[in-house]
Structures are given as C-alpha cells and as structure tokens.
Amino acid sequence: MARKLLLEHINVPGINTFDVYRQKGGYRAVEKALKTLTPDEVVEEVKKSGLRGRGGAGFPTGMKWSFLAKPEGVARYLVCNADESEPGTFKDRYLMTYIPHALIEGMIVSSFALGANTSYIYVRGEMMPQIRILEKAIAEAKNAGFLGKNILGTGYDLELYVQPGGGAYICGEETALLESLEGKRGNPRIKPPFPAIAGLYGCPTVVNNVESIAATVPIINDGGDEYAKIGIGRSTGTKLISASGNLVRPGVYEIELGLPVEEFIYSDEYCGGIANGKRLKATVAGGSSVPILPANLTLKLANGDPRLMSYESLSEGGFATGSMMGSGGFIAFDEDQCIVRNTWNFSRFYHHESCGQCSPCREGTGWMEKVLHRIEYGHGKMSDIDLLVDVSKKIEGNTICPLGDAAAWPVASAIRHFRDEFEWHVKEPIKCLDTNYGLANYAQPIAKAEVTTGN
Amino acid sequence: MSDKVKVTIDGITVEVAPGTTILNAARQIGGDIVPPAMCYYSKLEGSGGKCRTCIVKVSKGSEKDPRPMPKLVASCRTTVMDGMEVQNITSPEVIEARSGVVEMLLINHPLDCPVCDQAGECDLQNLGYEHGLQKTRYEFERRTFERIDIGDKIQLHMNRCILCYRCVFTADQITNKRVHGILNRGDHSEISTYIQTAVDNDFSGNVIDVCPVGALTDKTFRFKNRVWFTKPIDAHRDCPTCSGKVTLWYKGENVLRVTARKDIYGEVEEFICNTCRFDKKKTADWVIEHPTVISDTSVIASNHYETLKPLPVIQNNPQLQQANKVELEKTTKF
C-alpha cells in the first residue's frame, strides 16, 4: 500500500471541518514552523524535500521561494493558483473540496516562510462550491487563532483571502493570474520581470499551485529529508494524479512518484485497468497540454525500460517520444477512441481559451482547430497533415506564455505518433464519419504497438 | 569601470546603457539588423512583446552566464546583458520563425493595399514583402467587420487590424478619457470603443498615427490620394495644446492631411492635437520649415530605390553568407 501524505485522512468523516482536521494532527505544521523555525529554515526544509511545483512546470519549489526579492519596506505576497482548468486535471478541486484545511495550513506555513502578511487563494470562478468551502475553512482557522493578528502569540500576522477568478483558462498562467487578481483583463505579462521581483501590485510575489502549497505541511511535519526519501531521483514525494478516460476506476489518486505507469493503470489499488476489457491505445500523462503517447511508449521507454510516474521518466526519450508529468492529469484512451477527434477537441479548447494578445497564438490556434475540424469531418486533404505540423512549429516557442506550446504539442505529438490515423481520415472520409463503422475496423495503430494488456 | 554594457548583434558590437532593450541596441547600430516591430512603440509605455515580429535568438546570454536563451525572445522587451550575443538576420531560425509570424498576421489582414489608405507607409506591407509567402495557406473564411466611425474624423476598419494594442496604449496614456480598448478574446478580439461611442478628446487623432496598418484612418484624408503622390513638408505653428510640430502632406498647393512627424522607425516624435491635425489645412496656418527627410527606400521617395546590400559583417564572413544564402540571393535580384 503506497504511503499517503495529502489524502491520508480522506475517508475520515468530517475531515473538511477544523475540529476533525485538528484531531487528526492538523495545524501541527503551523505550530512547528511559527514556534520553532525561522522563515529561512522553513524554506530550507522545502529545498531539502526536493518538492517540485505540482501545477505542471515542475520547477523546484524551494528554489522558486529563494528567488523572492526581499526589499525593505515592500510587501511580499503568496498567491495560491487554484484556477485549475486544464482538461483532464481535477486534483486541486478534489483537495480543496474534501480537505480544505490542508491548503489553509499550507498557506500559513508558506506565507510565513516567504514573509507574506497577505495571501490570496485565486480560485476559478466556476468553482463556487469550493470557494464557499475555503471561505468557511478560513473563518474556522481564524476563529481558532491560526489566521489574523499575532498567530498563536508568535507575533506573525497573516490575512488570507479567497478571490474568485473570471473563469478563463489563461488565468492559470501565473502572470495572467496576477493581472486578473489586480482586477484587470487576464492577459499574461511579458517576462521579465518575473513575479519574484515584481508580481502582485508590483511587489515580490510567489505563485504556487494548490498541491504544492498543501505538500509543505507534511514536509514541515516530517522534515524535508524524510519527504525526499519518497519517490525516485529528482521526483520526490507523493503526487496527486487525476485519472480519467477509459479506465475502470477513474478518480484522484495519491501515488509515490516512481510508480510504474503500468501498475498505475492496471493494478486494483489505482485505476483497475482499461474499461470494458478494451486495449490501451494512448495516454496523455499530464493534462491535455502535454504530448500524447501511444500505448507502447506509455508503458515502456524507447529502450524497453518500464516508464515510471516521475518527472524524468515521462519526459525521457527525447521530445520525439517523450511526454511530461505536467499537472498529473492522466487521460487514457482505449482502442475505440479516435485520436483525430480527440486532437480536434483539445485544439478547440485552446482556440477558445487563447487570450489573443500575441499573433502566433491568436491566429495559429484557430487555424489548427479549423484544419483538424476539416479532417475529422471528412473534408481533409493529405497536405493538411503537414500543414498542421508546420503551423504547430510556428506557434511553439514563439508566444508570450506557454498557452501557445500547450496548443501546439498535442497536435504535433498526435500526428507524430498517429499519422496513419490522420491519413486514414483523409483517405476514408465516409468510413471515419460513420459511427457504426467505428474505429474498431481501423486497427493499424494498435497492431503496430506491442501493448501489454495488464497483470 | 564603464557604465555601459557591450552587446553583439549579428556580429556587430555596440555599447549601450544598462536597461536598453535588444531592439533599441540594434537601432543604435541601424541598418538591416534592426528587427521589425509592429506593436512596439518607444513613445508608449508598456508597448511591445505582442506581435512577435521582433523575435531574435540570444546565442549567448551574457559574460557571466554564457548559456543561450532556450527560446527566441522578443527583442523589444528583452534587456541586454553585458557580453550578450544576439542573432537576428544571421539566424535562419529567426527568419523562419518571423516568416511564420508574418503568415499569422496576414491570415486576417486583407491584402487590399491597392485600396488601403495606409499603402506606401504600412509596416505590414514591408514585412509581408520581406518575409511573406507568395501564396497563403489559409483557406478558411476571414474575420470581417463593418466599418465603425469613432468620432467624426476617425474611421476604424477592424478587418485590417492586427491587434498591436498601440492605439489602446495611446488612448490610455495620452488622452484624458479612455473610451476604447480590446473586447473579446483569442481571434475574436477586436478593438472597440465600447458600444461604438465616439473617441472625443484633443489627442484622439494620434491613434491614426500609431496604427501600423490601415485599421485606423483619417476620414479627412481617406481616398483623397495615394501617399506617394503627395509631398511631405515639415512645418510648425504656435499651438497652445501641443508642440505644433507636424508634417504637411501637399498635393499641388493643397494640404491633404496633417500628421505628426515620424522618425526613421515610423514612430511619432511628438504627439499632436486634433486642432493641428484636422482643422489647420491651409498653408497660411503654418510656418513652413523644409521638405521632410524621407528614407530613400520608402515608397514615398518613389523611383529612388536603393539596391539591397548585405551588411559588411556578412560580406566578410563565409559562415554568415552560408546562413543567409536566401537573403543574399535577394540582393542580386534587384
């Protein structure tokens, strides 16, 4: 049984309330940090833990904290990025819904470490239930003396606010989030300056994901060294994975990093295999923005080693075969799923969510979506496939923020790994439109992949 | 210790003040190595970084940290570091990426130069000529909009807009009443005056000057003439509102339009008021100075095209010649 740090008490009735959370050892990390450690020592523990940002980029959290400018007489802010809205990613919402105090406790510990006296949890506007849950949890924590003035008599003050966002995917990008938090249109800022130098209201700011902030609680409770013992290589600790798609048991799972992907998909402890006895065709390992991997490369690396649920393993093998851990939004596709339709669906999302600030993203995402729509609906041309590859290249790396990359990667990788399926759509437009005919009659990608069907 | 930093762009080293952007460092060198800029405008704070036409490759970050930057960067928003090495026209990667950006910009921008008032002084026209493909690969319906009169003197034609945000910054920074901005998102974005109200203030006409394409046009000049048939003359008047330094565009003895004076990068030197721009169209209103200095390569100086010449740094370096083969071939065509 894998070790659980964040979801250890998920099944305890009333764990969403302050009293039960406290009975189960909650807020020990606040007491320990504020009473026995200095802010720098907290940062040091997080550095030792090797914790990497759980929002998608995987940048070392402790290092990010250490970049924070500390000019005299200027406020510093911690902003929690709870704008989770990537297709396939729903683990932060789960954490906020069922164990909100884990986030509140993490916010207090992290704010103390960063010297922030005002912190914000920026929640996607549509998540109204979670906003109410968090507001209630904050009120409970404040009543118990864990927020507000002179917390636990230590002299440390912290005000914590929940701010609903406007409901745009781009507001999950840290600088767009800050713009939105300041009450402006949620457009990404051009970096530099980075938020650590000039963030919210021009002050030094750290923006961290919900899960990253919650993970500081076990790090402070048990020590950074202890946390670093879990996991593999530079992927330390546990990670929440939101599994969806054609799985027997989709849901949110806490795994120890380094778990073989095959075990995650097929073992009864996690997803329980592919639904309806079908075969695995492909996976998206870290939310819709990361490159898709065919089944053979989902389970094995190019050299035949087992692929692990870790930042390094999922990106190993070069970009040509690799994917990313991303936000942990694991989507599985069975053999009946149409990769072209799925790619169009993802592309439609990024087209809709582009902020429109920079030219390649504004124009390119729409272009790709229209070409994919044409192919999927039987009007594609063979040259469209190369056109898509070319347009995705023109977008990738040339935009203000990573949304351009996020739009380009799924398209480029789908064509790289499933080109023959795209060609089949062009060659056999009637067959691919006929839902009765279905993809079951199109077995090429499956036949090519040496798919393991489970243990 | 020198308070300047050294930066090398396409093999040419220049010393600039700390905090200078790569684009402005390149402008200090001048010539072909200056990256094009559709959205950056030195007079407007916060502009730049959006159109991505000025992207360059930083092949060496600085003396302290010589690592190259992982992606191409917007030269208008990236400040130089001491020892930085930048490739603009000497990088095939940059040329390729820039042609991609131009292709994207032209997706929804009609090539109606023959009937566009901006023809002859359009940055996108130049860019399309230098980096564009001969044929579009985009086969879908284009965005189309109705023309909007924003005030009695300015017309907005969103079909041509490339969303550079310059007019938004202008309205925000030099006029006293912000009434226009961007509506919607993604490729549905549009410049709008919020329910089609008029832009009505003393400096509103400057949005026409900052527009790099023909989206915002002067209704007092529209379709009156082609810009290359007019003769620009620098003039001034004693204006209580602005500097009163303008360019008068003559056809015969008539002043067809009045604009602010622009530098060699097409940027306004000093913003002018609407009275000077729209209401003073008699020679008697002005103190004439001299004919405006026009670049020989501009269409306004028609029939005076200069032959394209490769930079000396390319002429002397076989490696750079190889990297810029296509560009060099162009020079022999003319």
Automatic annotation (TrEMBL), chain A:
Query: Which InterPro entries does the entry mention?
Result: NADH-UbQ_OxRdtase_51kDa_CS (IPR001949), NADH-UbQ_OxRdtase_suF (IPR011537), Nuo51_FMN-bd (IPR011538), Nuo51_FMN-bd_sf (IPR037225), Nuop51_4Fe4S-bd (IPR019575), Nuop51_4Fe4S-bd_sf (IPR037207)
Give the matching SMART domains: NADH_4Fe-4S (SM00928)
| Pfam name, any one | NADH_4Fe-4S
Look up the record and name the cofactor or cofactors this protein needs. FMN; [4Fe-4S] cluster
Domain NADH-ubiquinone oxidoreductase 51kDa subunit iron-sulphur binding, first and last residues per copy: 340-385
Catalytic reactions of this protein? a quinone + NADH + 5 H(+)(in) = a quinol + NAD(+) + 4 H(+)(out)
Alphabetized UniProt keyword annotations: 4Fe-4S, Flavoprotein, FMN, Iron, Iron-sulfur, Metal-binding, NAD, Oxidoreductase, Quinone, Translocase
Q: Which domain of life does the UniProt lineage start with?
A: Bacteria
What's an example of a GO molecular-function annotation for this chain?
NAD binding
- Asked if the Swiss-Prot or TrEMBL record annotates the protein with the keyword Glycoprotein, the reply is no
EC number(s) per entry: 7.1.1.-
Q: Which residue spans adopt a coiled-coil conformation according to this UniProt entry? A: none
Enzyme class name: translocase
- Family of this protein: Belongs to the complex I 51 kDa subunit family.
Q: What's this chain's function? A: NDH-1 shuttles electrons from NADH, via FMN and iron-sulfur (Fe-S) centers, to quinones in the respiratory chain.
Instruction: Note the PANTHER family from the entry.
Output: NADH-QUINONE OXIDOREDUCTASE SUBUNIT F
Please give the name of this protein: NADH-quinone oxidoreductase subunit F
Q: Which organism is it from?
A: Pedobacter ginsengisoli
Automatic annotation (TrEMBL), chain B:
Domain of life of the native organism:
Bacteria
- Needed co-factor(s): [2Fe-2S] cluster; [4Fe-4S] cluster
InterPro entries annotated for this entry?
Answer: 2Fe-2S_ferredoxin-like_sf, 2Fe-2S_ferredoxin-type, NADH_UbQ_OxRdtase_ferredoxin, NADH_UbQ_OxRdtase_Gsu_4Fe4S-bd, Prok_molybdopt-oxidoreductase
Return the GO cellular component terms, semicolon-separated. membrane
Task: Tell me if Ribosomal protein is a UniProt keyword of this record.
Answer: no
Q: Does the keyword Hydrolase apply?
A: no
Ranges for domain 2Fe-2S ferredoxin-type: 3-92
Key words, A-Z: 2Fe-2S, 4Fe-4S, Iron, Iron-sulfur, Membrane, Metal-binding, NAD, Translocase
Where in the cell? Membrane
Q: Name one GO molecular function term.
A: 4 iron, 4 sulfur cluster binding
Instruction: Show where the 4Fe-4S His(Cys)3-ligated-type domain sits.
Output: 93-132
CDD domains from the entry? Answer: fer2 (cd00207)
> Which family, according to UniProt?
Belongs to the complex I 75 kDa subunit family.
What PANTHER family does the annotation carry? Answer: NADH-QUINONE OXIDOREDUCTASE SUBUNIT G, RESPIRATORY NITRATE REDUCTASE
- Give the protein name, as stated in the record: Fe-S-binding domain-containing protein
Natural source organism = Pedobacter ginsengisoli
Native organism taxonomy = Bacteria, Pseudomonadati, Bacteroidota, Sphingobacteriia, Sphingobacteriales
